[in-house]
Every structure is written in C-alpha cells, then in structure tokens.
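Query form — protein Stage V sporulation protein AE

QUESTION: What is the three-dimensional structure of this chain?
INPUT:
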Amino acid sequence: MLGVRGPSKAAASPTARLADPPPAGPPVHVSDPAPGGIGLKPPVRVILLTDGDSAARRVAENVAQRLGLRCISASAGNPTPLSGPELVALIKQAVHDPVLVMVDDKGYPGTGPGEEALAYICRHPDIRVLGAVAVASNTRARGVEVDVSIDREGRVRDGPVDKDGQPRRRGRLKGDTVDVLNRLSVPIIVGVGDPGKTGGEIDLEAGCEITARAIRQILERS
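ANSWER: The structure tokens for Stage V sporulation protein AE are given below.
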C-alpha cells in the first residue's frame, strides 16, 4: 500500500544504556528453505535493514540468531545483488518469520537497486513490512524522518543520528538507501549509525547490540 509518510507518532522510551552483551553465537549464513519448498503463508512479516556491506551482513546474521529471526544472507551486497522479485521469492521460502532483509544502494545517485528492491518488497501483497532500520551515512540525500533512533551508546532517542551514531537535534536521517521510505507506508522507522562501524572503527559487537535494540523497538511497536 502506497502512501506518504506523515509526522512521527511514536514516542521514545526512557533513556537507557545497554547491559553487557551476551557472547555472540555462530552466524546464520542463509535463510533455511522450507521443507519441500513449501514456504510461509502470506503475509510474511519482514524487517528491512538499509545496509548490505560485509560488516552489515555479519551484524544482521548475528542479530537474527539472537532474536529468533530469519536472515536472508543472499540479500547482502553493496549494492544489493538481487532484484525485488528474487528477494520476495527467498523471503517466502523462509522456515519462519519475521525475516530480516538487507538493501543497499552504495551511494547510487537517484533511485538505485537497493531502493528499487525495497519499494518492491514494501508494495508486495504477500509481504507485511513491520518496519525499517534506517542506516545513516554521509551521502547527500533528502533523508527520512524517523520514529526513534538508537545512538552509539545504545540509548533510545527522539530524532535522527549521524553515521557515527551521534544524536542530531532535529531534521532527517541522511542515508544512501532511505529516501524511498518517504514514498512508502512503513509503520516504524528506527535510525542507527553505520552498523559495526560507528566512530570510524570496526566494532561488530557494538553494531550487533545497537541493531538488536533497533529491531526490538520495531517488534515491540508492531
């Protein structure tokens, strides 16, 4: 269902810091196909992550395991390597939902392959998008209004964050695969810095904790 995203209605939960994370288990490399090729009954619940590079993939696989989601690892890529129809076919083969899907434009000017795939998924009648984790970048873009963001310390905040996960007082979250969200009816959008790379350094454990917190916000509000 198409629509223009209006003002955010969700309120941020009280500021809180994350507890020490549990040890990470082995990553989930693929979304297991359903036995006999029989997939889930529609609509399949999906959560979108607007990043698909190698760090984002490792974060997504780890978080999916922690939260009991399925992760479409084949959706990873910079830019997104699969089309919207190909991604929907994989989503519908998952053993259970919600299903975590990565989309990425790699800074493509205009509407790139990641945004095209994202829009196709959101408009598909067999898919129910629960929300999107919108990843900030330094790309010049219109940006998108978020319901809440998770900052680099793991705190839930009103308003956007930048690529490093630092809170911004006002405005939109800027990212290279987020502008299309303005034209779609996505119920909840949670902003984060670049997963696993906030502060300019690789820190996958911190990226996992922040992304998990963002996805929990979507699940709790769905």
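ADDITIONAL NOTE: The two ends are 17 Å apart (CA to CA).
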